[in-house]
Amino acid sequence: MTVNPALRLRQICLLARDLEWTSSVLSAAFDASVVFRDPRMAAGGILTNTHIRLGDSFLETVCPSDMAWQQSTTQTRLLERNGDCGYMAIVQVPDVAAASRSMEAQGSGTGIVSGSWNVCPGAPGLGLAGVESGPYILGESLPKNPDTVSGINVQFHPKDFGTLAEIQENWPGQVDFPNNKGTYHPAGNTWQNGVDARPHGGVTTGFAAVEIAPRGDDPEEVCQRWMNGLDAGCSIDPDEPTTLKLAYGQTMRFIEPGADGKTGVVGVDLWAAPGAYKRFESIEICGVNWTLVDHV
């Protein structure tokens, strides 16, 4: 079965104590700028964030507020345990209704950690004025109405998937890799306007792989859960039972925690920008090891 071209690692999320410093370091290292700060997240008073565009994929950094530290939230406890670290892997799926049901059935069957739908009048690139949103109900399909843009995100517990796991479906436009200018709500709805002028920076065109160290679970079993949950033609490499193959040569790798004991997203491979001087082979930023690799 051929993997569906929409099934892609579309976003990595990091967790940091200092949002501005971390975002500046990432921008400089990857020659990519911040394209969105979610005002709705900031309005909640617990978290702030930035999104950096890498080609048509995104690198998010999340930072807890003073209120979050006072309340001892999940994010602050994770920072106290791991320091700055990888937080979430986000995979784009062709059918969120089907994938949400199959992801929910994996492992302990804990269910959805959180989920929401977003619908906005307009088209890709026109912003989010008039956006409406609400809580996602397991198995609901993405609304695809004329003259609107829409998106659904659903998150699942790290104890079942090795890290906080999120699936995304957005409309219109999910399969025009690598110059996708369709909707992608987490990064706002204006980032598309810069793709033609600068498809990517001089370091990377986007994600090649994510490396996840599950906490207390067998990496092979967690890899199998992701495959069963995502479906859409993804497959496990028969010679590497801890490697899951997505579309366009992307992979998800599952490993035992290292000597430092860190779990969750611990490494990311980036496609090296074609024809560009390779600025580094491997570099550690925000507790994650970033490696530049050539296109397959």
Describe this structure in words.
The chain is 19% helix and 36% strand. Helix 5 (96-104) packs antiparallel against helix 7. Strand 15 (282-285) and strand 16 form a beta hairpin. It has one domain (8-293): 2,3-Dihydroxybiphenyl 1,2-Dioxygenase, domain 1, CATH 3.10.180.10. By secondary structure, the chain is an alpha+beta fold. The longest helix has 12 residues, at 19-30.
Strand order of the largest sheet: 2-3-4-1-5-9-8-6-7
Low-confidence stretches: none
Number of strands: 16
Proportion of strand residues: 35-45%
Order of SSEs, N→C? EHEHEEHHEHEEEHEEHEEEEEE
Structure summary:
The protein is an alpha+beta fold and 296 residues long.
Keywords:
alpha+beta, 2,3-Dihydroxybiphenyl 1,2-Dioxygenase, domain 1, 7-stranded mixed sheet, 296 residues, globular, 9-stranded mixed sheet
Q: Topology of this protein?
A:
Layout: E1 8-15, H1 19-30, E2 34-36, H2 39-43, E3 47-54, E4 57-64, H3 66-71, H4 74-82, E5 85-92, H5 96-104, E6 112-121, E7 132-135, E8 148-156, H6 158-161, E9 164-171, E10 204-213, H7 219-230, E11 235-237, E12 240-245, E13 251-254, E14 264-272, E15 282-285, E16 288-293
